[in-house]
Amino acid sequence: MRFVPVKSAERQAVLVLHRSRELLVRQRTMLINAIRAHCAEFGLIAAQGARGARDLVERTVQADNSTLPEVARGVVMLLAEQLEALVAQIQALNRRLLAWHRQSEDC
Q: Is residue 45 part of a domain?
């Protein structure tokens, strides 16, 4: 039988940071895909990825009612606000992880 050393509370806390960041990144991907899919239904197409989603949101703001109805525009803008919040949270976790790695002797 192979024994595994017990993780310290600090090590477990860092693992929580990593898993939380991973969760937020997955949620960001889901929001980007939802924004792209909703806009594609109305003929607004953009490249994949975060940059494409930003461009798509900008085009959504500028679109007239014949291209994108007001109800759909409101929903896309709501998703865009959530996306911005997620990006800020991911950046905050990145800073915390970087600070931990800089002060850790093991890293």
A: yes
Domain range for 49 = 32-99
**pLDDT, tens digit, for every residue of 77-92?**
999 999 999 999 999 9
Which two three-digit tokens encode residue 81?
Answer: 């606000």
Torsion region of 49: left, alpha or beta (phi above 0 gives left; psi -120 to 50 gives alpha):
left
Asked, for residue 68, whether it belongs to a domain, the answer is yes
Query: Is 14 within a domain?
Result: no
For 23-75, how does the pLDDT look when each residue is reduced to its tens digit (9 = 90+)? 999 999 999 999 999 999 999 888 888 898 999 888 888 878 778 898 999 99
Q: What are phi and psi of 103, to 5 degrees?
A: -90, -10
Element (H, E) at 81: helix 70-103
CA distance 50 to 53: 5
Domain count for the chain: 1
Note whether residue 18 is domain-resident: no
